[in-house]
Design brief:
With 161 residues, the chain is mainly β. The chain has strands at 32-40, 43-45, 50-58, 64-74, 85-94, 99-106, 113-114, 118-120, 123-130, 144-152, 156-157. It has a single domain (28-160), classed as Immunoglobulins (Immunoglobulin-like, Sandwich). The strands form three sheets. A five-stranded mixed beta sheet has the order 2-10-9-4-5, with no helix packed on it. Strands 1-3-6 form a three-stranded antiparallel beta sheet, with no helix packed on it. It catalyses: Hydrolysis of terminal, non-reducing beta-D-glucosyl residues with release of beta-D-glucose.
Length: 161
């Protein structure tokens, strides 16, 4: 396979038409609230990893589990990229009325784009954290937080980091 862009091969590239059952779709017996999304550092060199933390609170009356999902969006890229890319997820059990702080690492290689080889590019990115994809409409409410970060430096091959 020589074309790794996947354009036209997966729902992430189908324009405005949303999938019927996107990743993470489902119902819950409780409600969750996300807050305090922190990206560190907010400006990083092209080969650096990003640290992410978010607080998840079970605001309902039942103990339950939530699948916390992190998505990355390129604000500009030299080649076609997905609307957003799943970069991390974790199933977390949270007791009713309690909260937990979660930490993630988004590796530099997860920002790579295919341009005849895997490349890292500088620019602005948006990271989404929540119980569903950004903009997803479901019967079970779940919020999605977002924060921007910047990557500085010059574009380089992934293997050059």
């Amino acid at each position: 396979m020589e074309n790794y862009t996947m354009e036209g091969r997966t729902y992430r590239y189908y324009g405005q038409e949303a999938p019927l059952y996107p990743f993470g779709y489902g119902l819950s017996y409780t409600t969750f609230r996300y807050r305090d999304l922190v990206l560190s550092p907010p400006v990083l060199p092209v080969c650096a990893n990003l640290s992410v933390s978010v607080v998840l609170e079970n605001t309902g009356l039942r103990d339950s589990e939530e699948v916390v999902q992190l998505y990355l969006r390129w604000e500009q890229s030299s080649v076609p990229v997905p609307h957003w890319q799943l970069v991390a997820f974790r199933r977390v059990a949270v007791l009713a009325g309690r909260e937990t702080k979660l930490s993630f690492q988004v590796l530099a290689e997860q920002r790579a784009v295919w341009a005849q080889d895997w490349r890292l590019e500088p620019g602005t990115f948006t990271l989404f954290a929540g119980g569903q994809q950004p903009g997803q409409k479901t019967r079970a409410p779940s919020e999605v937080l977002s924060a921007r970060f910047s990557v500085t430096g010059t574009a380089r091959p992934l293997r050059g980091c």
